Amino acid sequence: MTLMEFFGCAFIAFGPPFALFLFTIARDPMRVIVLIASGFFWLLALLISSILWYAVVPLKGQLAFGLVFSVLFQEAFRFLFYKTLRMADAGLLMVSQRSENEHVDIRDFSNKHIMAYVSGLGFGLIAGAFSIINVLADMSGPGTIGIMGDSKYFFWCSAFLTLCFILLHTVWGVIFFAALDRKRYIPAALVVAAHMLISCLTLLNQQSSNTNSTIYLASLLPAYLLLAVSSVAAFYTAGGNLKNVRAAVVCRQGRYEID
Q1: What is the crossing angle of helices 29-55 and 112-139, to 10°?
Q2: Transmembrane residues, as ranges (predicted)?
């Protein structure tokens, strides 16, 4: 039973992100490189956060302290990765032109939203892995939680929150990079504020128990609502519109319309 729970939660958390990686990134070596590089920048943010948490001894027991500075460092390193990627654009374009036989799509460098999407997914995947890996290890057995007054919904809530944060990082990457490219700093600031808000709401999950499991909804519902809003914003930021969606649906159905 615990093994089934392990695989179920793992597939909930990483199933859709893995599908995104498989169908949109895996075949292109340059996208894979950018994905790994963005994950490395997230690890640097985690390292700096850990050093700060370890150094400030009086506040080591306060989870909110570590969470707030972790979010700030993550967004700072998202900005640093944006600057690094923009400085490397010329070099990446040159490499792509010399690698025509390696499935490198030159459109990746003319359409900057693609690389923003890839870097956001890299941020999300490594963040999700670090947030749930210990939980997955615990749920694999030999027992499970819920007997000693803990909430029996802890595991699936962790899985759905991990999935949500991975997807949020993906769409936040598109919005954040586009805002900086266009020098519109309010959307970039809103990304930071949204990240801080949803992360702080997860602190409420500490109060859950078998008799008060609905507290998880206080973080899950706002997180998925924000994901829906952010996804629509990223869609329009990348140049999408309802006419394009309708045209794609018509093409998939094998119908062609002439305006």
Answers
A1: 60
A2: 6-25, 32-56, 62-81, 114-133, 153-178, 185-204, 216-236
Cα–Cα dist 107/170, whole Å: 19
The model's pLDDT over 86-138, given as tens digits with 9 standing for 90+, comes to 887 766 666 555 545 444 454 444 467 888 999 999 999 999 999 888 888 77
Q: Count of CB atoms within 10 A of residue 192's CB?
A: 18
Look-up of token digits 């803990």:
150
Distance, CA of 151 to CA of 156 (rounded, Å) = 11
CA–CA distances in Å: residue 184 to residues 9, 187, 195, 224: 38, 7, 18, 25
pTM assigned to the model: 0.85
Contacts with 70 (C-beta within 8 Å, 6 or more apart), sequence order: 45, 46, 49, 199
Q: How far apart are CA 101 and CA 117, in angstroms?
A: 24
Nearest Cα to Cα of residue 86 among 175, 180, 16, 158 = 180
Q: Which of 143, 192, 135 is nearest to 162 (CA)?
A: 135
How far apart (Å, rounded) are the C-alpha atoms in residues 108 and 92? 10
Helix (H, G, I), strand (E, B) or coil at 191: helix
Angle in degrees, CA 55, 129, 73, rounded to 5: 40
Contacts of 60 (CB under 8 A, 6+ apart): 53, 54
The continuous run of DSSP H or E covering 10 comes out as helix 2-24
Tokens of 213: 């499991």
The answer to whether 172 touches 196, Cβ cutoff 8 Å, is no
Element containing residue 136 per DSSP (H, E): helix 112-139
The answer to whether 181 and 42 have CB atoms below 8 angstroms apart is no
Cα–Cα distance, 230 to 80 (Å, whole number):
22
CA 216 remoteness from chain centre = 20
